Structure formats: structure tokens, C-alpha cells
Amino acid sequence: MTTAALELKNLQKSFGKTEIIRGVNLAVGNSERHAIIGPNGAGKSTLFNLITGRFPQTAGEVLLHGQNLAGKAPFEINRMGLSRSFQITNIFPKMSVFENVRCSLLWSMGYKYNFWSMVGRSRDLTEGAEQILEQINLTNRRDLPAGTLSYAEQRALEIGITIAGGADVIMLDEPTAGMSHSETDYIVELIRTVTEGKTLIMVEHDMGVVFGLADRISVLVYGELIATGRPEDVRGDPKVQEAYLGAALEAEH
Ligand SMILES: Nc1ncnc2c1ncn2[C@@H]1O[C@H](COP(=O)(O)OP(=O)(O)OP(=O)(O)O)[C@@H](O)[C@H]1O
Ligand SMILES: [Mg+2]
């Protein structure tokens, strides 16, 4: 059996006495696009925070390509090839679009390089950042302050920042939240192309996005996965219908 890109084993998290994540088991394969859905407050963002090392787990394990992430800081996990975006837009608004991408590239290269080799690399950095701008279609916005971009463009920039370090596991928390239909279609296509060949784990409320993009779906309800499977199987699962999807699909109409 090949090693999963990401594996969660009996993962648990409590805040004080309140159990928020109650023993989650999940294996996400290499190059799989996996969506995590579930009602507000189910613990989706908390799960992301456990996986990326922002919160320590109460019990259980997170394995990235078979390596246990226990005790690792978020930046160490990032340098092991896992990168995430946040539910709330998270860019430097006064810096240019180009500098936002360049900074994240620089940061992801870390302290491996000393100052002099860094100088030699500055052209690589510029080229790298420009390639990312091409990928996210923001070349013509290169020198604008990031804060002046439209909302959808800012989320595209954020996706660029997330993929900049070359991570092979990408986690996106509600990448289409607050977008119109056309903006959503645009971002979905962008996500599809920039994550080609990578492992994608995303939290998403828009069922059109989820069913259009995901190879498999997990449904989190009150800190527990009540189902994991292919979209058509999850859609037809009576447990899922009852706990979440019935209401979520109705809300779309
Ligand atoms: N740092 C924290 N301290 C205490 N409780 C927290 C903390 N972070 C989250 N929670 C609680 O954990 C529960 C799950 O929150 P979380 O943000 O993970 O849900 P979610 O599934 O991402 O919801 P949404 O769909 O609204 O984004 C909520 O009841 C929340 O209040
Ligand atoms: Mg959330």
C-alpha cells in the first residue's frame, strides 16, 4: 500500500472541557482532491488548525507522507510540504501583489540560504514570483497594492501565496466564501489548474464547488466524520442527508 499524503488517526481536540474534534480518522491519497463539509461550528477550521500545527491536539496523530507531525511548529510543517490558506483573507494589503508573492516564496525558502547565496537567488525569486502571478492571472496587477484588488482577485492572490513554496499538499479554507456565481466559477477553475497533481484538502460550503471539484468528500458533524466517500455515494447517504446535505442543498435554491 502506498503511504497516504495525509493521515489522521483518532485525532481529538478539546478546548477546556468541550470536545470539539472527537476522534477523526481519515486518509487522503496523493493527488486526491478532498472536500470537508459540514454545518457551521462542526470543527472544520479547528481540524485545519490541528493539521497545520496551529493548535496542539489533545490526542491522536497527524501524519504527512507517513511522518508524524507531533510537536512540529506551523513553519516546520509548511517546509515539509503542507501549505494552507485561511478562512479570512490574509494578505499584506499595502504591499504590491508581486511583493506579496515574492515574500511568501522567500519565506518558504527559509533560512537555508545565507545572505550571499540569497543575493544570487534574487533573480530566481523574481522569476518564481512572476510565474505564480501568471498562474493566478494577476500579472497585469503586479505593482498594485494588494488591498486595492477586488475580493475575488485577493482570494486568487491568497491561493498564489499558498502554492508559492511548492508545497504538494494544499489546504484551502472556504476559498469561494462570499463570492458571486461567476467569481466562484473563476476561482474553481483556478484551483483546479494550480493544484493539478497536488493533494488538495478544502473546506467549502458551496455544494456546486464541492461536487464539481472533489474526488472524495468527508462530512464532519459535531467533531465527528459521519461519512467519507465519492461524491455520488456521500450525496445519497441518508445519514448525510439528514445531518447536513438536505438543508445545504435546499439553501442553494
Ligand atoms: N480557540 C478556540 N477556543 C475555544 N473554542 C474554539 C476555538 N476555536 C474554535 N472553537 C470552537 O470550536 C467549534 C468549532 O469551530 P470551527 O471554527 O472549527 O468550526 P467550523 O466548522 O470551521 O465552522 P464554520 O463553518 O462556521 O467556519 C466552535 O464551537 C468554536 O466556537
Ligand atoms: Mg471554519
UniProtKB/TrEMBL annotation:
The keyword ATP-binding applies. GO terms for cellular component: plasma membrane. GO terms for molecular function: ATP binding; ATP hydrolysis activity. Keywords: ATP-binding, Nucleotide-binding, Transport. Residues 6-247 form the ABC transporter domain. CDD domains: ABC_Mj1267_LivG_branched (cd03219). Transmembrane segments: none annotated. This is ABC transporter ATP-binding protein. It comes from Pseudosulfitobacter pseudonitzschiae.
